[in-house]
Amino acid sequence: MNHHSLPDKRGHFGAFGGKFVPETLMPALKELEEAYLE
């Protein structure tokens, strides 16, 4: 397994930084992340 197979500390994968979740969940995940960081 190479380092692109594992997420970084922000949960991003590979050189493009995508998250491995369905696109329809992104608004909810962004809201959750912002609430967590407060």
Notes on the structure:
- The protein has 38 residues and is mostly helical.
- It is 32% helix and 0% strand.
- It is built from one helix and no strands.
- The protein has one helix at 26-37.
- The chain is flat and about 30 Å long.
- InterPro entries: TrpB-like_PALP_sf.
- This is Tryptophan synthase subunit beta.
Condensed summary:
This protein has one helix at 26-37.
Features:
single chain, 38 residues, mainly alpha, 1 helix, flat
Task: Please specify the SSE layout and strand pairing.
Elements: H1 26-37
Distance between the termini: 35 Å
Largest sheet, if any? none
| Helix content, binned percent | 25-40%
The computed structural class is: mainly alpha
Q: Order of helices and strands, N to C? A: H
Query: Which blocks of ≥5 consecutive residues have pLDDT under 50?
Result: none
So what's the overall shape? flat
Q: Bin the strand percentage.
A: under 5%
Mean pLDDT: 80
Quickly count the helices: 1
Would you count the extended β strands for me?
0
Spatial extent as radius of gyration: 11 Å
